[in-house]
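pinned: reference chain
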Amino acid sequence: MKSGASSEFAWIPYLYFGYLPPDIAGFPFESPNEREVVSRNLYGAAKVVGERLDAVILHQLEPNSLHVIPLSGGLDSRAMLAVALDAGVEVHAVTFGTPGTYDFEFGSGVARQVGIRHTAMDLRTLAPDTEALVAAVRAGGRWTYTFDAYYNRLITNEFGAGTVVLSGFLGETVAGAHYPGDITSAEDAFVAFVGHERFTSRRSLVPSNYNPENSLEQYRSIARIPGISLYETIDFAVRQRGAIRPIVVDDRFDVRTPFADPRWLSLMFSAPTEWRQKSLLYEEALRLKWPRLFRLPTKNHKGSGLVAPWERRVTHLIERFGRRLRCNTRPSSKVTAPAPMLNYIDFREGFASQSPLRALARENLADLKARGVITWLDPEQVLAEHGVSGVDNSREIQVLVGLEINLKAS
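pinned: its structure tokens
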């Protein structure tokens, strides 16, 4: 359990963030002490970045082991797959999510394209019960996004024993995906991060006198990591360490995180700011190093692959004509889901229908209400309102169920 979570009502921040921020400031990696000299030529810099990434991923591979790669529609898992294929090690790709979404379709498509062993897990058929969620929390997924922890442990529970699991943890974040743009002052970065991290979308779940900034006071004056913005520094220390790592890194198994390698961090944190914005340098490096794999559709570009800078202008023009034209001209025509960017499952639909997911929520929200620890709202009413006249309380329900599951697991 995270520090402080066991004391009475120390879980209040969970109702705001959807996870408990770590009490003690720190980072989920060894912070690089020195910056490197990076070429001011994008092509030259991208070539160096591609070679460095190849080396740090290769360093994590074991010649005589099976390597399990959770393969999504994103860039990080595909980069790890590219290195593993080049190295000739045994690979088992696992795609999980909802059919019709970018992650499910593009991950599966890449696996088929390269002809590797592949398992596709349709999460709609793998709805958890209370016991399974409690088990996921006790297996390391404490005080984070509880459903996310459960879904990720489906992979390690099934395929983790005796294998090397490669995780893309920190990949696109280090590359600059969370670069905040023109936020410059420390106070603005702090306030912006706190505002962005509110998990619920429709209603507040916290008491009226709760101030989320107080939960992160120890991070207000955190020392900035050289080469990156203060906003990113806070993100690494709070969200990546407190929320994301417990989800994607199952410490019961041999899970390896090449994007946390100090050699990778040192180079990427030394890159010019303008090249970290929108992961420009990272994407150019992937395109140059593994052109065949990264011309296939990606989630990051909503069905487009990574293309040369001059091609991007053409791609942007095509995308302006809408999804129909793009689907007719790209290999993403199978993606027909109304929300192709969806992660995991459609919680809005799941909590609204007469499904195992709604039954799970009903059970745990009734238990939470019976505890009497939340007196400022009615957990069961949050579920009752969901789906009525278009009301979407799905994120609120996830947090309240997560709270009850963590209390059960304590």
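why pinned: The two ends are 8 Å apart (CA to CA). The chain has two domains: 30-345, 346-410.
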